[in-house]
Request: fold
Amino acid sequence: MELKINGKNFQVDVEDQMPLLWVLRDELNMTGTKYGCGVAACGACTCLIDGLATRTCTLAVSSVVGKEIITIEGIADDGQLSAVQKAWIQHQVPQCGYCQSGQIIAAESLLDEKPQPTDEDIDLAMTNICRCGTYQRVRDAIHTAAQWRHEENSLLG
Amino acid sequence: MINQDSNKKKRSKAAKWGRRAFIGVGGLAGIGLLVGIGGTVYVNKKIRKYSGAGMGDGDSLNAWIRIAPDNTITLAVPRAEMGQGIYTSIPQMIAEELEVDMSTIQVIHPQPEAPYSNTYILSQKAPNAFKGYSIMEKIYAVLPIVATGGSTSIVDGFNNMRYAGATAREALRMAAADRWNTDLSSCKAEKGYIINTVDDEKLSYGQLAEAAAEITIKELPELKQKSDWSIIGTPVQRLDIPDKVTGLAEFGIDVRPENMLYAVMRHPSTIGGNINGVINQAEIEERTGIEKVVLTKYGAAVIANNTWRAKNAALALKLDEDSAGNENISTASIATQMDEVLDQAALATPEQHGDVEAIFDREENAVIEARYDVPYLAHATMEPLNCTVLVNDGRAEVWVGHQASSIVQTSIKESTGISKANIKVNSTILGGGFGRKAEPDYVRKAGAIAKQMPGIPIQTVFTREEDMRNDMYRPAAVSRFRAVVSAEGDIEAWENKMALQSVSHSSMSRIMPAMAVSPANDLATTEGAVHLPYIMKNRQVSFGQVDLPIQVGYWRSVGSSQNAFFTESFLDECAFAAGQDPYLFRKNKLNDHPRYKAVLEKVAAMSNWGAQDNKFRGIALHKSFGSIVGQVAEISRVGEKQFSIDKYYNVIDCGMYINPDTVEAQMEGGIVFGLSAALYGEITWDEGEVQEYNFPQYDMVRMNVSPKIENHIMENEHYPGGVGEPGTPPAAPALTNALFAATGERIRRLPIVKQGWSFA
Reply:
């Protein structure tokens, strides 16, 4: 099978049903995407599939052939952190950090869809579990990232 | 005669220790820099053998500090980074005295060796480098206890880490004075340089480190006053966060040593049960990617070239199991057992003042009675338990996120038979700890599995289901209260009788059996239920031990996790029985404790307590791990028994603090952790088996329910208290007291959502 991950092509020889999470982690050693529950309940394994935040622990690898897969390792652009990543640092969001790959990907997806999300939009979109309880900072960082993205776009436009 | 001989032997050993300490201070001082830790003195020659200092480029000034020629500073931080920010706050303490920028610092995690011991965690005494040579410290020299827990890292390190920095700085100044042949007083340490204040020359620490490592410090220097701090007490950005936003941070589950294979376990289905054999081993071993099925005394495991393949194969194992006679244990049978214990005479009465019975016996007194209970809880760290082990030729290498590297070493020794000197521990960051990752079980199991495939690193991963079903749970607990409150609102009598399993007995029996306390002496059982700050004329707190084969363990805030809910709820009941405002009721009883009172007054003021608006408020005050926390939960009604948890106001007095932003983060996290338990957390048993096994059955607070949190840290110069745990205990009673204020319904049992309430 050929997979397109973070703009590069990878050949993998695995069962069709193997979840993308385990292809990334154990076949390709891309360990930024995390295993949390295995039943799509916690969001630690979230990646962007054709731009949409998707839980990959129950997503058969055969179903993403030909799709654009972006993992946390592919969010920064050539070493340049995204607005979301920068906001995460600005607000000192992570504690243990284990869920944050998934949180960041979910936030990227939300902001792509809704550039200026309300608190209610954030409540609906951000359903990932953070056992350390960083939710307030995640929320604040999303608002900051939205602002920074808006400013960047204004400069470009 | 035998006794005399052994006494003689003891004396001579003690004399030897004393002499060694003396030589350390006096005789050998000529050959190296001294850093005292709790009176144990390490000279430079000895220090260089410690892993935190001895590896890599540059010169080691002591066991914590290495300086490279390019002026990068490598610090050995022997405490586990599990999200609390310790990889930043310990460096802040060292950097403050060493006079270096935080941006020049790198952190490594050393091996479990004597200088890195956590003295406070068992002795409950903060080490002071000037005093004493305690028995505990002698034990540590032989048996280091390098552990992170009990919110002790700052409490333990506050003096020693600053001395580590200060003594190294002094050696660097002396080296510069020597180089310039000038007076020490004209050598000023500043941002990684020694500056000659006479002629403005300067030398970098990197240029001076080699010479400084040979210098003697005969006296420990004076430490800076709080008013002179520029790094301690400031919100320095955490050193570990950049890698946590790019996916580069390496947790235990992320290590990928060459040729590594993955193992997934199957534990016995019943508490305390056994797996005696694998029925379909050959069939499973034929599956794609499966290397081997192994049976250990802890359970069966499948070793494969991919975690998913190992997991599926492990699920397909047909096992020969027995339930060890525990197949009748259920949540209902446990509750019955707890009530039986409550009806028996207490096992221990850790607090007794006056005569509560005499007050209860007076006919004119109205006795307020209530029974509170909470269930078992899982830790559910985001990173499921895992440990990677390579056993090879009498040596072992381990990669693991664990709260205690010394326990890792002991556990691998136990399950592989390899001596500690031949076990290398690579400590990774942890995806959550909360007390679960202080336990030896997952390391022992990984060792036993890896031993069966020598030469190949094996990463043993617990699936979420195995993790949750094989936890060392926060025990279920019951408190039965009686109180008498006078018409003026004075507490005439307060009685609290508890029943639960002993955490310390259960956990220490696994970790260090030799040091396991008996249930009757377990202070963790009643921590937070005794020595309440409120004036109470007569009081009695006692408990009974519930004997069950369930393994219970340290869970963020331990005894306080239930006892704050019990005591602060029942206190609220007393306030309402007396017809008094719950804030004023508490405040009036705090005249002996100004720090508590100040916290309570502050949180009341912040939360606009008493405001007539559409919000309902509940208040709670609790001290744990050396810090006092006051919280007000502010809620609003959405529907019948439906509420929005809008906001928490949180005030902490933790004495002097290192990093205010991480203190606030711990308060935020502690509240959410406490709320998850209060709203949803419950582990139940049926026919001896745990019924909850993943997040759909054991849910957590998520973004939509999580409140806003406003923090305040009290400013003073008291010795630091802990901050990792104290945010958790008041969260539940603040909420249930608010729900009472809104509805008049008193919640005496957790979790709340199972009693018909809902939150949005």
